[in-house]
Every structure is written in structure tokens, then in C-alpha cells.
Amino acid sequence: MSAKRSTQMTRPQRQRGLARRQAALLRLSTEIASAHDEAEVYQSVVNGLHDEALGYNFLGIFLLDEETGDRVLQASIGWPDIQDDWRVHPGEGLSERAIKDGKLHYTPDVRRESQYLPSLASGSEVDVPLRIDDRTIGVLVVESSEPNAFGADDFEILTAAANQASIAIGRARLLAEERQRADEHKALLDTISDLSSELELSRVLQAVLERAVTLLNVTGGEVAIFEEEKGELQVVASQNIGKDSTGTRLKLGEGAMGAVAVTHEPLIIPSYHEWLGRSTKYADVTVHSVMAAPLLIGRRLVGAIATVHSDPERVFGPEDLRLLNLFAPQAAIAVENARLYTEAQRQKQYFEDLVLNSPVAIVTLDLQHRIVSCNPGFEQLFGYEREDVIGEELDPLITTEATRKEAVAYTVEARDRPVRGMGRRRRKDGTPVDVEILAVPVIVDGERVSILALYHDITELLEARREAEAANSAKSHFLASMSHELRTPLNAIIGYSEMLQEEVQDLGHLELTDDLEKIRTAGRHLLSLINDILDLSKIEAGKMELHLESFDVRAMIEDVTTTARPLVEKNRNQLQVRTDPELGSMYSDLTKVRQMLLNLLSNASKFTEGGTIELTVERTSESNGPTMMSFSVSDTGIGMTPEQMDKLFEAFSQAEASTTSKYGGTGLGLAITRHFCEMMGGDVHVESGPGQGSTFTIELPVTAAKRTGATS
Amino acid sequence: MAKILLVEDNEMNRDMLSRRLTRKGHEVTIAVDGQQGIDMARDGAYDLILMDMSLPEVDGWEATRQLRADAKTENVPIIALTAHAMAGDREKALEAGCDDYDTKPIELDRLLAKMAALLEDES
């Protein structure tokens, strides 16, 4: 455009060589227009005007330094002793006039001017201002060694050149500004991509800080992360603030970073040492001014950043704030990513340590059942080296022909759902190992990716269990045979004492009857103890069986009360029996029902004196359950505390050891009763309080289902 | 007054029970094992047999089965005597052909009642 305009500026030919001058001006315009930056503009102006066809031999371009008022030389021709950057101070040189009024000044004879600064060409001088947007930014100075060397044509050419230069300078400055912004954006982009690729938190924070210091061209700074659970900031990176502040903790509101963490707004502190909000933790820093900003993701605080100048000459301005506002969100994201990554790493590390140190064998399989990874626990349990098994199918390695099918079935099932089980596997050396197995599918984003299998060595556990079972069985067998062996002589004792009682009655030796009765009673007691022990050992050994038969309940109750009455009346107790009119029949184990009722009546009699013992029998029928027969034995005796009731149905646990000596009994009756009830699908329970008597209730299904006697 | 065969290997039990039954007016004959019990039951005419179940060689169940299989003895009432309710003893005894069952130690009145019931049926 400029080049075209200059061609349009064709004037009538008044002078020879005009065409050449036009061509030179065209070249000048083109040169100026194609300059890339300010320096090139200056250089092309002086070079172009120096063209042979124009013939300006002494010239220079000055820019005005607005702060000092100096004119600073940018480019020149014909002034060999003068450097660029030469400063012409206010009050010196003729060109000041053009600067001041923004107009072209011609001095036909410089030697008459007092302000003139002598040069090689001390004849005449033209000074043309350089103006952008009505503002004078500099001056073009053209000299000649001859006085009166310039005319209107020259003024026209030089004015045109100055205008073009001014336009080019303005454009170059815009361009430079754009370039600077482009650089900033590039720096930010670098920051983002670098920081995103760096995930170790401490390094990210250090990098964030370094970027900020470079970008803002500050002395130093710090970065803190916000610890939400503590509500505090912790300084995690520190650079060049006069001390290493890493590790410093700041409460919300404390210091510059604490302040921005509360306000969520950036803050500039021009003179830090005079600032009232400064933290005592920063009393010794060499900081002059501070600019701080919160690191936010949305409205959520993740940290804070502070940058400092320690040079009192440097101040933070709107441009710095603008840059920091661009930078802070990127830094916040980088910090947050790194924090999340660190957290994930920590968890990963935790699980890796768990797998590594677990005594349980842990192995990961692909969907073809090939081993992807295994832990030291696996190597130890099965005796394989890790390198030998990776990529191999698992099941053939740890099974025998006999267990292969079962093992594969587990693995196949584990592709879809968690599987648990126990089984026998084999080690590398062929020895068997009993294991508890847990296998689960690993599902990521709804897709099965692998199978995780855990093997826990339970050889010792099973061995211990087998031993315990064998010991238990031996104990039961011992008890059963001992009971049997004990009973034979006991039968003789009881039998002979009864026989003797009959004989002494026949023979009239009544004084012996009491002693014989004591022998007989003691013998009967010992027998019932042995019988109870035998019952319990049979129950524990799972050998107690039910012998189910139909019987009339009323007849059974009459039989039981007849047997129990002497026992009840021994302690001056009264026995009351209350029954439903229609009791009907039961299909159950008659012997055991009798035994249980006699046990309850016997207990009630023992612990009650001069009271009432009541047997209540009811046929109950729940809508959803089987028809039950309920037998309750209530007494008005000593009763029990809740603690005593807790242990009531356990073997060998009369309320206190002392009760055994006072009241007799084996302490096994209720334990047996409970087991019998369970075997018959029923239940026994008690209600009592100290001094309030006790009520024991047995509930049995009218029709018992045959069940095994094994109880735990 | 009845003729009773008591099959019992334990000497004291034998002595005790035979003496008590004798005192109650019964005529008691004794066999000391299963085989002897079978042989004596076939040879003599007894009103009732008291059979201990745990006998050496031929046990009480086997002896009962053989007696039931023999026309001469198939109708003689047999009461099984066993130790305290060993699992299934009662069923096994009734299955083998016993008419009733009682446990040791003997409660004489109870046993006499059971004997009386069977002897009454018999007559």
C-alpha cells in the first residue's frame, strides 16, 4: 500500500533524475514496509535515504525516552564517531524543537545556532518528528555539510519517509507486543503440557514455581497446597525468598497466601514489611513486594502461589496480575492432578506391598487361565519360581489328575463370579497341600479382564482339626466304654442294697433299713451321673439317636407325675398339674421327653422348699408353624440371677459349685435337655429372677422330624 | 408262681435277680450264655424268659431270633434286659422278637409288673 501511494505521489517533472529519485523513494517505502521489527525500520529508513539518487549523507533517527526526555540514537549514517544508544539530553541539539512542537524544522545554517551539537556536517539541518497517534515518539535528523542545502522537495521526501517510518514503527511495536503475548502463551502452553506430563507432586510444585518466577520475571516465590482435613496451607516449594520456607504451615487468613486462600482473589502487597497482614513466620525474609494468588479449581481451593520482588525498584502492576491470572488455573490443575496421582500411587503402593508381603498365594490369570503375575507367597506355597510360571496355564501346574477337573471348574466359574472353596493342590515337587481358595473376576469398566486367585495354606489347620476330631471321638468312646464298665459294678451295688432292704424287712432288722437306703440312694445318684455323662458323650459324638413313636400325652404326664411326686413332696412342696382338656397324642421320643420332664421336676423340687411346683401342658398351634406341645414347670423356689441363667444350659454348670454340694444333681440335666429339644426340633427356655422362682418351658413339635444328634 | 429262665452272663446280676425273683415266689433257672439259653429253652417248658442282650458268643438278639424261629419256643414270652438305653437297643430287641424290654439296674416292682402282664396274656 505504502509503495503504491508513493507512486501516486508523482509530481510534474521539474528536475533531471526525477525518475531515479522516484525509484529510490519506492525502494525506501518497500524496505520500510517489509521491516520485521523496529530496529529494521530504523535501519531501512537511514539506508533508503542514503541512496545515491536521494543523496542524504548525514542522518540519524532518535527515539524519545519519555522518562528522561533524552533522545536516544537508534540508527545513523555519516556520523562515524557516534554509537547507537547515544543520548542527546534535553537542552542539547537542534532536533529538540521538532520533538517539542511535532513539526518539521529547517536550519539553513547551523553554525548560527547555540544549541547545535557539532558534527562532521556542520552546514544545514532538517529535523522531522516521528509521530504515532498525535504523539511524538522521536525525530529524524538530516544534515548537510553545506549551508542552505535543503529545499521544499527535500522536506516533502523526508516528511513522507518519516511518516512511513512512524507507521512502520507503530506496526512493529504492535507486532512485538503480539509476539510477547505469543511467547507468554507458549510459556503457558509449555507449563501446561510439562506439568501435565510430570506427576510427582513435589516436582510438579517445583516446576510450577519455576515457571511462575520465569514468566513474571520475579526474584522468587513459593507454592503451598491446601490440606482440606486440617484447613491449613502447607508450603511445599520455595525459591529465593531469603529462606527456605518449605514445610511452613499457614492457617487460613495467615500471611499473603493465607489471605488469598480466604478471599479467593489475587493480592498485590507493594511493601511487604509494612503490610499488617504479614505472618510472623516470614519476619526474616528479604522480600520487598509480594503478589499472591489462590490456586482454585472452580470454587474449590487446592493451594496458593506467591511471587516476590526483593528489588525495591521493581513493582507489581496490572500486567503481572494478568499473567498470574492466566497462570494460576493451569497451576491449580497441575497441582490437583499431581495430588490425585500421588494419592493413587500411595494406594497402589499399599496394595502392592500387601500382595508382596502377604503369606497368602496371590496369582492373576488372563481369561485363558494363564498366569499374568504371582506374588512371593505363591512361589513359597507351590515351590515354583516366578519366571517359570508366567504365561503358563495355572491349573495343570498345581493339580493332579484327580483334582484337575475340580480346579478348572473353579477357574471357569471365577470368570463370572467370586468362588470360594477348599481343596487339595500339589506343589512343584508333587507334595500335596490343602488350600482354601478364593477366586474373583477382575472387572474394569464392565469388562472382564482377568481372574484373581488366592490360595491360603490350611494344611496345618486341617491337620489340627483332624487331630481335634480324633481326640474328641476318642474321648467320647472312652466315656461311653467307661460309663458302661462303671455301670456293671454299680448295678450290683444298687441291686444288692435293694435286695438287702427287702431281706431285712422280711427278717425284721429294721434298724439297718436307713443305712441300706443311703447306699441305694448314693448308688442311684452315681448311676444318674454316669448316665448323663454317657448321654452327653453320645450327643457330642453324634451318636444319640431319636426313637420316635406315637404316645398319648396325658398317659405320659400321669406316668411322669407319679414318678416325680415322692421327689416333689420330699421338700414339703405341692405338685399341681394343669393341662388342656384335649392333649391328644405326640409322635416323638417318649423316653427322652420323660427324661426331660423328670429332670425339670427334679430340679424344681431341689431348689424349692415348702412351695408349689406347677406343671402346665398345652397344645399350641401357630398359624405358620407346626403344632407344638408346651410343657412348663414353674416353682416358687430360690430363682436365679441373669448371670446364672446365661450358663444354665451349658454342661457342668449349676449356678455355683456350692449348689451341687447343697442340692445335689449332676449339672448335666439341662445341657442334655437342651440337646434333646434341639434334636426334636424344639426349644427350652427359662424365666426367672432371684427369689422369684423359675419357669422352665419346653416346646416340642407334636410331630418330630428325625434329625441327627450331632450338635456343636 | 411261674417257671422263669434267666439268661445272664454276669454272675452278680444273675445271683441278685434270681434270688429276688425266687423270694417273690418264682422258680428261676439260670443259663450263663446265649447258646446255653437257647438249648435250655428248647429242653424245658418255661413260662417266661428274661434275656440279657449283651452276652458273649451268641448275644441276646441272636438267641431271641433263634428261639422265635423254633416252633417249640416261638410263643414263650421274652423280656429283654439291657444296659441303660443304648442307642436303638429297645427297637433292636423288639425287632428280634422280644415281647418287652427293661433296663438295668432292675427296678424290681417295674420288672414284676411287666412280667405279670405277659404271664397274664399267656394264661
TrEMBL record, chain A:
Domain PAS as annotated: residue spans: 347-394
CDD domains, A to Z: HATPase_EvgS-ArcB-TorS-like (cd16922), HisKA (cd00082), PAS (cd00130)
Protein name: histidine kinase
Signal peptide span: none
Pfam name, any one: GAF_3
Uppermost EC category: transferase
InterPro entries found in the cross-reference section: GAF (IPR003018), GAF-like_dom_sf (IPR029016), HATPase_C_sf (IPR036890), HATPase_dom (IPR003594), His_kinase_dom (IPR005467), HisK_dim/P_dom (IPR003661), HisK_dim/P_sf (IPR036097), PAS (IPR000014)
EC numbers: 2.7.13.3
Molecular function terms, GO-annotated: ATP binding; histidine phosphotransfer kinase activity; phosphorelay sensor kinase activity
Domain Histidine kinase: 481-704
Species assigned in the record: Candidatus Kutchimonas denitrificans
From TrEMBL, chain B:
Keyword Chaperone annotated: no
Pfam family, one: Response_reg
Domain Response regulatory, residue spans: 3-119
GO biological process: phosphorelay signal transduction system
InterPro entries the record matches: CheY-like_superfamily, Sig_transdc_resp-reg_receiver
Transmembrane domains' residue ranges: none
Sites bearing 4-aspartylphosphate, chain numbering: D52
Protein name: Response regulator
Sample GO molecular function, one term: DNA binding
Keywords from the named record: DNA-binding, Phosphoprotein, Transcription, Transcription regulation, Two-component regulatory system
